[in-house]
Amino acid sequence: MAIGMIGVPLGHQMPPVLDELSDLCIAAGEPSLAALVVNSETGAPGKGFADGGVPWHRSVQEVFRYWAKQ
Fold this sequence. Notes:
- The protein has helices at residues 14-27, 56-68.
- The protein is mainly α.
């Protein structure tokens, strides 16, 4: 696992953390970095990921475009 927490069940802990991360990004006028967090088996975000109806891959592209300019 990329964050080095193998064996730690994160299913219930990650959603609130990612929600907070998303809120902080949006408050700063940045795209949500939570879009970059994906399931290692599926390569897709968890069931709780929502970005106002924007398809997930668009959210990822927005993050990369934004940070490429920084």
